[in-house]
């Protein structure tokens, strides 16, 4: 593998060059006028008629001998056309109505889940976090567990049909108390614990115990909203004191993902309790975020918590921003497409993502997403510089774009599998193709010594000056990775789910077996390199080192997301279908519903 060798042999002095800012492009957010010049009209009837007849005859001949030229012209004229994508077969693929399970591969996923869960039960049952190598657990604060692991994994146990394990987990949750005098992340507590309780409530057939726990937790969280002068919640909460707390690292600031990824959970809680209070809290956030947007319709990472406005900071689809974009679409889906405001916000955001952030590598033209970094000019104006950095977190976007294409840009309520040419509008086809290409790129980043993808990659651009190196990578690389030195943070694989999430969505929407094949390869790589023999799985410190070195931590999202999405990838399409469920950002399925009261923001 040439790219692999080049990443290992890449010289140290390039890291300094990359940090210097040469590995970037400056971009303007002004829209350019691309309208063609209008040619002079001809006055001679005979001459113009001759030209029209000749041109038409030539066009017919070209269509007969070179039909692809015509299709390319059509694609250019309408601005985009996935239905003329060269990657698609010449004939329309057969529409599939139902996707059968792959029992063998799904069974292997269940056995891997049990290998991890049984070790956690043995060594650390109830602990918030698990350390499989040392075989012990730890909690987020000294005051005890809030069920970070157990509650986050409840619905995985339900979905996989692990009844005995589920019964033991439910019994533990029944004795769980949230009266903990410690500071907890508002965002993480909501998506993992509140989301886990709500999903378990629905999948259990409305077990009241889960609802009571969810209401208690939500009420303890409520102060982060009600005590805020701007409506943006405090990033941390003391659950015992029921008091919002500022971040110690970024005092006075909140990230757009922290505040823009609470909505599915609190809205569903309002729906099942018939109490609009929770809904109003998170709806107010969306109103503030919409009013604060820059002209490019993209969210900067940080906002001033007290004033409710964006501060000049990076624009990214990765850490601290990713799930904000995810929830724009999913809020629209959650209420059965009754709130057009979220469809419009999503459309504006994705149009800007396509215009400003989607780029192509210089080697093989792989599509990826850049980040925009603000820079101040001498006259105090802000310009934006692109940097070709993509987090593994961004790999959610491929599946999200494809889901958005069929859910928000279709002419029909239920597009075919895969969509037919007539079923999506031009925006839908554009998102569909970009989504497919981003998934391909994310799979390319698995071309490592372990077959696992790193936490962060950088892509080649024309101005990076790397062609001078003998073993310069063609398309992407791990910055700072060199043989003989400790691996950089970017080189690790933390058991993340984003790529398999997109593979699951893409398979459900297309029926294309290539996505199952990709998912199986990732699962096999996890089994080979991240599995701890005594039980559990652990973070791989360097994906380009084989045998791999492991870090003593198994993230809760490995069981709540990664293995769940793999299980669903190999299950039949009747299990948690997209027309009945929407998944929160921690992979907790929540039912689609229509609100029973007027939603003020929409």
Automatic annotation (TrEMBL):
SUPFAM superfamilies, alphabetized: Seven-hairpin glycosidases
Biological pathway: Protein modification; protein glycosylation
Keyword set, alphabetical order: Calcium, Disulfide bond, Glycosidase, Hydrolase, Membrane, Metal-binding, Transmembrane, Transmembrane helix
Molecular-function GO terms, alphabetical: calcium ion binding; mannosyl-oligosaccharide 1,2-alpha-mannosidase activity
Biological process per Gene Ontology, one example term: carbohydrate metabolic process
Stretches the record annotates as Disordered: 1-41
Binding site for Ca(2+): 585
EC number: 3.2.1.-
Basic residues composition bias: residue spans: 1-12
Biased composition (Polar residues): 16-27
InterPro entries: 6hp_glycosidase-like_sf, Glyco_hydro_47, Glycosyl_Hydrolase_47, Seven-hairpin_glycosidases
Keyword hit for Membrane: yes
UniProt entry tagged with the keyword Disulfide bond: yes
Ranges annotated as biased composition (Basic and acidic residues): 28-41
Cofactor or coenzyme needed: Ca(2+)
Gene Ontology cellular component list: endoplasmic reticulum; membrane
Membrane spanning stretches: 47-65
Catalytic reactions on record: N(4)-(alpha-D-Man-(1->2)-alpha-D-Man-(1->2)-alpha-D-Man-(1->3)-[alpha-D-Man-(1->3)-[alpha-D-Man-(1->2)-alpha-D-Man-(1->6)]-alpha-D-Man-(1->6)]-beta-D-Man-(1->4)-beta-D-GlcNAc-(1->4)-beta-D-GlcNAc)-L-asparaginyl-[protein] (N-glucan mannose isomer 8A1,2,3B1,3) + 3 H2O = N(4)-(alpha-D-Man-(1->3)-[alpha-D-Man-(1->3)-[alpha-D-Man-(1->6)]-alpha-D-Man-(1->6)]-beta-D-Man-(1->4)-beta-D-GlcNAc-(1->4)-beta-D-GlcNAc)-L-asparaginyl-[protein] (N-glucan mannose isomer 5A1,2) + 3 beta-D-mannose; N(4)-(alpha-D-Man-(1->2)-alpha-D-Man-(1->2)-alpha-D-Man-(1->3)-[alpha-D-Man-(1->2)-alpha-D-Man-(1->3)-[alpha-D-Man-(1->2)-alpha-D-Man-(1->6)]-alpha-D-Man-(1->6)]-beta-D-Man-(1->4)-beta-D-GlcNAc-(1->4)-beta-D-GlcNAc)-L-asparaginyl-[protein] (N-glucan mannose isomer 9A1,2,3B1,2,3) + 4 H2O = N(4)-(alpha-D-Man-(1->3)-[alpha-D-Man-(1->3)-[alpha-D-Man-(1->6)]-alpha-D-Man-(1->6)]-beta-D-Man-(1->4)-beta-D-GlcNAc-(1->4)-beta-D-GlcNAc)-L-asparaginyl-[protein] (N-glucan mannose isomer 5A1,2) + 4 beta-D-mannose
EC class of the enzyme, as a word: hydrolase
Cysteines joined through disulfide linkages: 395-442
Residues of the active site: 188, 322, 455, 498
Family: Belongs to the glycosyl hydrolase 47 family.
Protein name from the UniProt record: alpha-1,2-Mannosidase
Organism: Candolleomyces aberdarensis
């Amino acid at each position: 593998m040439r790219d692999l060798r080049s990443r290992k042999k890449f010289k140290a002095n390039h890291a300094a060059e990359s940090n210097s800012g040469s590995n970037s492009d400056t971009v303007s957010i002004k829209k350019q006028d691309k309208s063609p010049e209008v040619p002079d009209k001809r006055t001679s009837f005979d001459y113009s008629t001759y030209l029209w007849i000749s041109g038409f005859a030539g066009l017919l001949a070209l269509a007969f001998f070179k039909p692809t030229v015509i299709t390319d012209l059509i694609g250019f004229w309408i601005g985009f056309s996935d239905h003329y994508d060269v990657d698609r077969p010449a004939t329309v693929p057969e529409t599939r109505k139902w996707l059968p399970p792959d029992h063998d591969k799904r069974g292997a996923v269940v056995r891997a889940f049990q290998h991890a869960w049984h070790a956690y039960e043995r060594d650390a049952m109830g602990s918030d976090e698990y350390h499989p190598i040392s075989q012990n657990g730890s909690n987020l604060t000294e005051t005890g567990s809030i069920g970070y692991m157990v509650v986050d994994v409840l619905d995985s146990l339900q979905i996989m049909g692990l009844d005995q394990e589920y019964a033991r987990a439910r019994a533990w949750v029944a004795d769980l108390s949230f009266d903990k005098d410690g500071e907890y992340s508002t965002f993480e507590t909501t998506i993992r614990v509140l989301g886990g309780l709500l999903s378990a409530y629905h999948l259990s057939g409305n077990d009241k115990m889960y609802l009571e726990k969810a209401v208690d937790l939500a009420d303890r969280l409520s102060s982060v909203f009600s005590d805020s002068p701007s409506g943006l919640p405090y990033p941390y909460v003391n659950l015992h004191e029921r008091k919002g707390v500022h971040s110690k690292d970024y005092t006075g600031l909140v990230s757009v993902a922290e505040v823009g990824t609470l909505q599915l959970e609190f809205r569903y809680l309002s729906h099942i309790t018939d109490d609009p209070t929770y809904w109003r809290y998170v709806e107010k956030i969306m109103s503030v975020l919409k009013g604060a947007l820059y002209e490019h319709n993209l969210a900067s990472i940080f906002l001033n918590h007290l004033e409710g406005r964006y501060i000049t900071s990076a624009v990214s689809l990765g850490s601290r921003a990713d799930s904000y974009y995810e929830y724009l679409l999913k809020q629209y889906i959650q209420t059965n497409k009754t709130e057009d405001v979220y469809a419009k916000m999503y459309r504006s955001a994705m149009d800007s993502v396509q215009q400003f952030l989607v780029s192509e590598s210089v080697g093989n033209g792989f599509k990826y997403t850049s980040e925009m970094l603000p820079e101040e000019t001498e006259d105090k104006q802000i310009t934006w510089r692109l940097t070709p950095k993509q987090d593994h977190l961004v790999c959610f976007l491929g599946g999200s774009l494809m889901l958005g294409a069929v859910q928000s840009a279709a002419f029909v309520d239920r597009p075919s599998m895969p969509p037919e040419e007539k079923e999506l509008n031009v925006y839908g086809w554009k998102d569909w193709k970009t989504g497919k290409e981003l998934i391909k790129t994310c799979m390319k980043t698995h071309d490592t010594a372990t077959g696992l993808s790193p936490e962060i990659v950088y892509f080649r651009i024309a101005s990076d000056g790397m062609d001078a190196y003998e073993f310069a990578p063609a398309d992407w690389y791990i910055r700072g990775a060199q043989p003989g030195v400790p691996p950089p943070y970017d080189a690790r694989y933390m058991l993340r789910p984003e790529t398999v999430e997109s593979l699951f969505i893409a398979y459900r929407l297309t029926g294309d077996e290539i996505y199952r094949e990709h998912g199986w390869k990732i699962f096999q790589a996890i089994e080979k390199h991240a599995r701890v023999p005594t039980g559990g799985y652990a973070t791989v410190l360097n994906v380009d080192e084989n045998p791999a070195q492991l870090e003593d931590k198994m993230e809760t999202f490995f069981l709540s997301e990664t293995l769940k999405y793999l299980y669903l990838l190999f299950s039949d399409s009747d299990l948690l279908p997209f027309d009945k469920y929407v998944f929160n950002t921690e992979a907790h399925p929540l039912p689609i519903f229509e609100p029973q009261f007027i939603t003020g923001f929409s």
